[in-house]
């Protein structure tokens, strides 16, 4: 994973369509892009409203074909408009928009190119970030760990926006759909933005439960066994309405 692979460049330099660089999708064929961008912005704003990020921390991406739409770096989500659509190809070359993509592009592209993810949500959620500084794996405090593929691992710390962090994250995500990032936050992916967001919120909730239970003086939280978690995970696969 060479670092320059993930650096956003002007789409004219990358062979992109100059019209796209000057204001978003150029024709009706980009309706899917426009709809996905609207949903991405709504999801990003929801991370703020639900207290999962502060300011411009955290980021969101969604894949449409071979284009990955991402939140731009350093721009408050409530200021984003349809004309701010920002997208890259799977090699990290900017193909849509003039705003620079999120600094965490390496993590997003690592997931989009190695899993079946359609959407990724990264946050600096308070309780999850706190847990990431205490343990190497979230203790089995609740069976919903099974919905994320099993015990939630903590990816070792690396500087944000680097290929090293993306590599650490991928190892922690092996067989999982979410992980913690040490001294940093959370990342989760799914088949849709809503699924990725729900997994993020569930992880933050489990971290809050564990921290709350662990803070009671003189008592130690009862944890699930791996067998109990596996049984719950199997049942969760059939949870909800058929699709």
Automatic annotation (TrEMBL):
Residues 1-22 have a biased composition (Basic and acidic residues). SUPFAM superfamilies: AraD/HMP-PK domain-like. Pfam families: Aldolase_II. InterPro entries: Aldolase_class_II_sugar_metab (IPR050197), Aldolase_II/adducin_N (IPR001303), Aldolase_II/adducin_N_sf (IPR036409). Residues 38-211 form the Class II aldolase/adducin N-terminal domain. SMART domains: Aldolase_II (SM01007). The keyword Chaperone does not apply. The keyword Transport does not apply. Residues 1-32 are annotated as: Disordered. It comes from the Bacteria. Keywords: Lyase, Metal-binding. This is Class II aldolase/adducin family protein. It comes from Streptomyces ossamyceticus. The lineage of its organism: Bacteria, Bacillati, Actinomycetota, Actinomycetes, Kitasatosporales.
């Amino acid at each position: 994973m060479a670092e320059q692979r993930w650096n956003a460049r002007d789409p004219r330099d990358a062979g992109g369509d100059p019209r796209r660089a000057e204001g978003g999708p150029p024709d009706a064929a980009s309706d899917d892009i426009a709809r996905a961008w609207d949903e991405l912005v709504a999801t990003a704003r929801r991370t703020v409203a639900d207290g999962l990020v502060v300011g411009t921390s955290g980021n969101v991406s969604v894949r449409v074909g071979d284009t990955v739409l991402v939140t731009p770096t350093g721009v408050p989500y409530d200021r984003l408009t349809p004309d701010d659509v920002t997208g890259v190809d799977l090699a990290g070359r900017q193909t849509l928009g003039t705003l620079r993509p999120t600094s965490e592009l390496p993590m997003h592209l690592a997931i989009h190119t190695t899993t079946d993810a359609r959407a990724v949500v990264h946050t600096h959620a308070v309780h999850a970030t706190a847990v990431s500084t205490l343990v190497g794996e979230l203790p089995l405090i609740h069976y919903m760990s099974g919905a994320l593929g099993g015990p939630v691992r903590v990816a070792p710390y690396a500087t944000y926006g680097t290929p090293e962090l993306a590599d650490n994250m991928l190892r922690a995500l092996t067989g999982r759909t979410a992980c913690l990032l040490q001294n940093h936050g959370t990342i989760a992916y799914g088949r849709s933005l809503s699924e990725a967001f729900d997994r993020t919120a569930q992880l933050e909730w489990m971290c809050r439960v564990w921290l709350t239970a662990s803070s009671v003086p003189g008592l130690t939280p009862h944890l699930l066994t791996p067998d109990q978690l596996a049984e719950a995970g199997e049942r969760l696969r059939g949870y909800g309405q058929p699709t």
